[in-house]
Amino acid sequence: MPDRKILSSSQSAASAAAALTVSSSMQKLKEHAPKPTQSIGFAAVLTISACGGAILLLLIAAAVLGPIFLPLLILISNHIWIPLGVLVLIAATGFLSFLGFAVAIAATLSWLCRYIRGFLCTPDLDRFDYAALDLDRFDYEGLYSRVESAEKAGSYIQVFYLIFYFI
User: Fold this and answer.
1) Cα 43 to Cα 55: distance, rounded to the nearest angstrom
2) How far apart are CA 43 and CA 36, in angstroms?
3) Which residues touch 127 (CB under 8 Å, ≥6 apart)?
4) Nearest in space to 135 (alpha carbons), one of 164, 166, 109
5) Would the pLDDT of 156 be above 80?
6) Dihedral (C-alpha) 155, 157, 163, 167: value to the nearest 10 degrees?
7) pLDDT given at position 163
8) What is the mean pLDDT of residues 13-35?
9) Rounded CA gap, 63 and 111, in Å?
10) Cα–chain-centroid distance for residue 62?
11) How far apart are CA 98 and CA 44, in angstroms?
12) CA 88, CA 95: separation in Å to the nearest integer?
């Protein structure tokens, strides 16, 4: 019996050492465990990467299988596509022509209304009268004398300035 007791005490020491090793390993694992926000970020990155990989695989499959099956589909259904394409082309041409004519008619009517109103509206005539009075009050002699004195001085830049400023 004593041998058995020694054996059991050595077994308990070994299990205690194993338990100590497991608890220290768990402690180290808990210290290095990611935070919850890091875990959620990792899950998000993993999900986005998996979706991107799936889309990439679908694109590769379409790029490989598309040139094989698309010509067959076009060959089988070309008696539908050609008349349908002609009809769509005619409809698009007619619609765009209609829009172009509508814009041209709207612009013509707008110009015509402004043209007719211009003759009927008197405030515009008042502005023309004011411009005529302003031309009557303009001092042409003073301008000519300044231009002549600038020409005599050789300052052609000032001549151009005077002419364009008063025109």
Assistant:
1) 18
2) 11
3) none
4) 166
5) no
6) -160
7) 65
8) 71
9) 55
10) 28
11) 52
12) 10
- At 103, which amino acid appears? V
What's the CA gap between 101 and 155, in Å, rounded?
56
Q: Name the E strands within the chain.
A: none
State the sign of the Cα–Cα–Cα–Cα dihedral 148, 154, 158, 164. positive
- Range 126-147 average pLDDT: 60
Distance in angstroms (rounded) separating the CA atoms of residues 117 and 17? 107
* pTM, 2 dp: 0.32
Q: Confirm if 46 and 34 have CB atoms less than 8 A apart.
A: no
Interacting residues of 166 by C-beta distance below 8 A, sequence separation 6+: 138, 143
Sign of CA dihedral 33, 39, 43, 44: negative
pLDDT at position 60, please?
A: 96
Residue identified by tokens 């814009």 is 103
**Encoding tokens for residue 66?**
């598309």
| Two tokens, residue 124 | 């515009």
Q: Which long-range contacts (C-beta less than 8 Å, at least 24 apart) are formed by 136-140?
A: 138/166
Q: Quote the DSSP letter at residue 138.
A: -
